[in-house]
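Support request, please re-run this one:
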Amino acid sequence: MAVVINMPRLSDTMEEGTVASWLKKVGDTVKEGDILAEIETDKATMEFESFNAGTLLHIGIEVGKTAPVDALLAIIGAPGEDISAYLSGAPAATQAVSAPVAETAPPTPAAAPAAVPQGVQVITMPRLSDTMEVGTVATWLKKVGDSVKEGDILAEIETDKATMEFESFYAGTLLHIGLQAGESAPVDSVLAIIGPQGTDVSALLSGAPAPASAPVVASSEPVAVAASSIAPATASAPVAVTSAGSRILASPLAKKMAADKGIDLSLVQGSGEFGRIIKADIERFTPSAAAAPQASISTAPSGVVHSEGVKNSQMRKVIAKRLSASKFTAPHYYLTIEVDMEEAMASRAQINTMPDTKVSFNDMVLKATAMALTKHPQVNTSWQDEQTIYHQHVHMGVAVAVEDGLVVPVIPFADRLGLTQIGGAVKDLAGKARSKKLTPQEMEGSTFTVSNLGMFGIQEFTSIINQPNSAILSVGAIVEKPVVKKGQIVVGHTMKLTLACDHRTVDGATGAQFLQTLQTYLEHPVTMLA
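Re-run finished. Output below.
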């Protein structure tokens, strides 16, 4: 059975897309994971990969053409398969559904397609960032049976970059939840089903194997989709993992409460679905009611737990993957300078006497860095195998520590902003980061990154380059110390800056000259007004 591929929604604000190029042509063999096309969205041009295998039978949108989200983009199926039924009788924008088929061979009765009842929408795990492969449901804002309006927030989804609100594009009743809070599943696994109240969706859920990819989208007619495309997701639930790898079902709130109270989850009897430990179980737990410790937990003779595994979040996995890739592919080297901050401190104090003005030392560093990058464009570059990309503007990444790890929101066109504008942007982005409200677009496109640990009292450190940047600046604390000025030892205030450079793009002399310029701006802030 052929698979109809729609124009994907590649950003949360995307309404239409333009095909920049096709990487496959009609008649080509397509494997799962092959790049089908490059699609220009309202944010960027992104590669769109196939989640299905077969032959490319039809291209619905030619290169350079623009179409709404969910318009017919392509059809994949068996060689020579008749697809006339998919192309006749309805406009492409309303006829197509992104419904995958696991195999290109004729379906067996067990995998026969199930008709989606009219008005029913199958919602799948959205791709909320360009690098997202798996999503975790942090919490549901609706429960089965609730009325859903278009624009209502259905759930909070934890991606590889942040936890984001996921809103419904449809109205109706929430008929089915495919992933419980804390469970993870690949992009395009079934997340929920919305439709008219009382609609029986059991036929869509029964007897289906593991979830396939691509969402089922609104259609003006009932559409046949493969049963395998809407199987309940087999995802890993939030668990406490013992040293021997045993799994304990527990809600995120229960896990947090247990950690706060020092309760070993393996000793708690769960009363939730499938024995899941919930809030009430933790509240009524007493040590006397505890079962004997499980053999899978490594304990000393006194019963003290030696170790406990904690499931890695998607953010932590991506941090590990990206920083490892950067460290082991980009040849790092480090340059450190010590900056006299006396004039910067005086200038900041004077600036902050102005009404409604609040400038931090970090804002001054960011401003000086943006200006220094315009003087040394070689540092504001990205390495590619065949070319070095020189960025025409400075899009400043600012590392922000959050509960689950580290995110890098981006201040676009920082080279055009004044001190107070930079300060406002940092405050806004940092607030969004800590409240998990950052969008993927606010974390994309950096050309240089600054990491500041001075507020923690760290005097000097090195950072791993945030690729595809060519360098990252590490900012230490301002320290009061004896310094020599005009041959006299006096009390001074200094700050250490360390620049990590990718030697493929930034040579030592170039990095040193950049730091000299940056030092001049910070030691003489009036030069930043020129």
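The CA atoms of residues 249 and 275 lie 7 Å apart. The chain has a mean pLDDT of 80.
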